[in-house]
């Protein structure tokens, strides 16, 4: 099988290379092949915040957006500072404890304090 990635928009694998772009014939989405190569090089295990700063265990971060907690009426407010984070593998990279409880958060909603 080829190493052409699936479409990031519709996730179907019927993509092809057209010049410098990948093209998905199903949803007509095009994206540059160079950006995919850079993303794969960047996957060295470094977790970065919304500004591109690397995060480490024990860092303090600030929420950049109000986040609704799934299955609850709780809302984590923008600007809330979270101390002593822990980095984990998976879709939600940051494990933290707040006054409202323990949460797993995505790094894209955080900025380093």
**Helix proportion:** under 10%
Number of discrete domains? 2
Give the CATH H-level superfamily of the largest domain.
Answer: SH3 Domains
List low-pLDDT spans: none
Largest sheet: 3 strands, antiparallel
Total strand segments? 11
CATH topology (level 3) name of the largest domain: SH3 type barrels
Order of helices and strands: EEEHEEEEEEEE
Kindly name the structural category.
mainly beta
Q: What order do the strands of the largest sheet run in, or round the barrel if closed?
A: 1-2-3
Shape: elongated
**pLDDT average, as an integer?**
85
Provide the descriptors you would attach to this structure in a database record.
113 residues; mainly beta; N-terminal domain of TfIIb; SH3 type barrels; 2 domains; three-stranded antiparallel sheet; 1 helix; 11 strands; elongated
Describe this structure in words.
The chain has about 110 residues and is mainly beta. The protein has 2 domains: about 45 residues, Single Sheet (N-terminal domain of TfIIb); about 50 residues, SH3 type barrels (Roll), CATH 2.30.30. Helix content is about 10%, strand content about 30%. It has 1 helix and 11 strands; from the N terminus they run βββαββββββββ. The chain has a 3-stranded antiparallel β-sheet. Strands 7-4-11 form a 3-stranded antiparallel β-sheet, with no helix packed on it. Strands 8-9-10 form a 3-stranded antiparallel β-sheet, with no helix packed on it. A hairpin with a 6-residue loop joins strand 5 and strand 6. The termini are far apart. The model has no long low-confidence stretch (mean pLDDT about 85).
């Amino acid at each position: 099988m080829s190493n052409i990635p699936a479409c990031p928009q519709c996730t179907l694998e019927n993509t092809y290379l057209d010049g410098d772009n990948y093209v998905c014939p199903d949803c007509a989405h095009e994206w540059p092949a160079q950006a995919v190569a850079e993303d794969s090089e960047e996957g060295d295990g470094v977790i970065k915040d919304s500004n591109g700063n690397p995060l480490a265990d024990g860092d303090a971060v600030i929420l950049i957006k109000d986040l609704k907690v799934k299955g609850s009426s709780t809302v984590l407010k923008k600007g809330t500072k979270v101390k002593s984070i822990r980095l984990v593998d998976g879709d939600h990279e940051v494990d933290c404890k707040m006054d409202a409880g323990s949460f797993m958060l995505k790094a894209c909603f955080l900025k380093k304090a």
